[in-house]
Amino acid sequence: MPELVLVTGGSGYIAGWCVAELLRRGYEVRTTVRGRDREQAVTDAVSTVVDPAGRLSFAVADLTHDDGWDAALKGVDRVLHVASPLGTASNDPGTLVATARGGTLRVLRAATAAGVKRVVMTSAANASSPSSYATQGVTDETLWTDPDDPTLIPYRRSKTVAERAAWDFMREHDGPTELTTVLPGAVFGPVLTTGNIGSVGIVGRMLTGEMRGIPRIGLEIVDVRDLVDVHVRAMTAPQAAGERFLATGEFLWMSQMAHALRDGLGAEGRQVSTRQVPDVVVRLLARFRDPSLREITPSLGRRNRHTTEKAHRVLGWQPRPARQTVLDCAESLIEHGAVRIPPRAGSGR
């Protein structure tokens, strides 16, 4: 009998790919949704890459409520806890942190009560980064972000607090359930559906020309397909129990992303701006015109990077080149009609 794996938040970008890949590898999959009205959308998305017939089921459960989690975990062998609230400038910071922490504990309580073999939790590289944005160099999983640092943006604090709470919970649990955490960088790659494109919306804005200038920000880009692969490796490798694994990819400045799109897409990349915006202009815009930019200003020019040597050594994981991921992401967005590239001037279209 194939193992049954629960994936939390099946309508999300990363979770959808987790569901698809687990099915492709022969697992039975159950995924949580916040309402039955989301089931068909998840099924349709997954069906673009694999036939889910007879092996995909759903459970209604919400990270903010206790109801449904015991039923969701019944009979489950392993868990990929991928779901997490997203942070934006409009979120209440306290609510965001409480939701991430509370949701993680709900999943772990139900998983340990059900005797699940292992829970793999999706954290973030931002939970293993120096608090000071001025810090340079390369860091590994032994470093923890200081959740009390007043300069942390809410999303970064929420991921750190939630992962801390998970490890604290497991230290007090003496049952058979094991915990492993995966800490990704900036997740890009192909989309399964236009319903939830997650972080790849950045690439979409570059393609349409909406992003008329490029801030001096660097990203450690990991392909969503490689991220799913490291989750499955962490779920099954005996030596992964009780470990944290950074899953960041190649570092690219956003200006390098823009040039990769212009050079690699031909006519479809013609709207991509490669003009870099000076840091002082970004800070002025954040202060006086666009408050949503405030969360990125601490990252301007930041060069701190993470090493994935542990994932390579322990799990045999190897991500693909970042430029290829960016191009695959763009081509997928175009193919799915997620972006509309303006016609050339005078083309008559």
Question: Any overview of this molecule?
Answer:
This protein is 37% helix and 15% strand. It is α/β, with parallel strands linked by helices and 349 residues long. It has a domain at 4-192 and 221-248 and 304-319: 3-Layer(aba) Sandwich (Rossmann fold). The strands form 3 sheets. The protein has a 7-stranded parallel beta sheet, with helices on both faces. It has a 3-stranded mixed beta sheet with strand order 8-9-11. Strands 6-12 form a two-stranded parallel ribbon. It is globular, with a radius of gyration of 20 Å.
The CATH topology annotation of the domain at 4-192 and 221-248 and 304-319 reads as Rossmann fold
State the CATH superfamily name of the domain at 4-192 and 221-248 and 304-319.
Answer: NAD(P)-binding Rossmann-like Domain
Structural class: alpha/beta
What is the mean pLDDT? 90
Q: How many β-strand runs?
A: 12
Beginning-to-end CA distance, first to last residue: 55 Å
Q: What is the share of helical residues? A: 25-40%
> What is the annotated CATH architecture of the domain at 4-192 and 221-248 and 304-319?
3-Layer(aba) Sandwich
Can you tell me the residue ranges where pLDDT is under 50 for at least 5 consecutive residues? none
- Approximate shape: globular
Q: Which strand-content bin applies to the residues?
A: 5-15%
Biggest sheet, open or closed, and with what strands and sense? 7 strands, parallel
Rg to the nearest angstrom? 20 Å
Briefly, what CATH class of the domain at 4-192 and 221-248 and 304-319?
Alpha Beta
The number of distinct helices, counting runs of at least 4 residues, comes to 11
H-E string: EHEHEHEHEEHEEHEHEEHHEHH
